[in-house]
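Researcher: Structure for this, please.
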Amino acid sequence: MKFHPAAQILTWCLLVAIMQFLTLEILLVAAGFVLLFALLRSAHKLMQLLRRTRWIMLSLLLIYAYSTPGQPLLDALGMFSPSREGLSDGVLQLTRLLAALAGLAILLARLHRQQLIAGLYTLFAPLRLIGVSRERVAVRLALTLHYAEVAMLRETHTWQDNLRSLFESHDGISKQMELTLYRFGIQDGLLVGFALLLLLETLR
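Model: Predicted structure, token format:
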């Protein structure tokens, strides 16, 4: 079943919000299902995201483990030991991040770049109320994604080469961009409505 790109993006955002309010036991089960589905549906995207965020995840776990007061995990290390409470909180946050990345991998596998921009363009509609042009935002987003793809193609190069590529002129980029706008259907309302109900249920 096909869904509006904006509905899929909004549903992912709502699911990320839901993850913040789940207990550890329920979160582990939910995250396990999302990770399993991501491995079956978009393993390559998931591995890319995990590889690019591995140091962030490790830092997150260490920060919680060593900055949260509590009982030492290893008594022999004394004050240099991570705390049990900190390690538990770190695993909780890491699980939430893994679930969010798995959901993002599924989303990126379902939407190509133009669909992603079209979905965000639709969600940016309220920006007109504060005088911000969503057309300009969409163009900047398209260029950002283009440069990100250029950097990904240069993974074998050094970080200096990747940084230099961002400042190179790219004559192949068109100054005009056409977006295919999609219509919302009943299935889109049901998808977002179901995610909203889940969020409201977790908040109760």
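Researcher: Any notable elements?
Model: The chain is about 70% helix and 0% strand. Residues 169-174 have pLDDT under 50 and may be disordered.
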